[in-house]
Amino acid sequence: MDxxxxxxxxxxxxxxxxxxxxxxxxxxxxxxxxxxxxxxxSKWVSHSARENWRTKWADKLFxxxxxxxxxxxxxxTPVLARGPLPELTRSLMAEHGTARVLDVRRPKQDQxxxxxxxxxxxxMGLGALLFLSLDF
Length: 136
Description:
There is one protein chain. This protein has 136 residues and is of the alpha/beta class. It has 4 helices and 4 strands, in the order βαβαβαβα. It has a single domain, classed as Rossmann fold (3-Layer(aba) Sandwich), CATH 3.40.50. It is 43% helix and 18% strand. α1 links the parallel β1 and β2. α1 runs parallel beside α2. It is extended, with a radius of gyration of 21 Å. 10% of the residues are buried.
């Protein structure tokens, strides 16, 4: 049985990116990577409330992905990531033997060059261009 460790955070995106099993049944180790909370939220929300939210979020995610995989006849082991992913990956690979690792998390939209924000140099250049075009 082929074993695959999959990191996911969005069920729709994950279903699009996950490969089909070609060589029979597959054992999927699904690792839910909950969205990060800002460090300022600790003033308003207790640690246990954050953990409860993460657990509910992961249950909802698994509820949308697991039935689809089980309908294909595959085995699924759900895991909620609670720490650094490299350490979790090492422990999962040791526990489940050799396995492929797939990262099908949705890419972040606020990365530089993603079209979300203007770089400071671009704003200064635009200002200089406007200043030069107003030739008094």
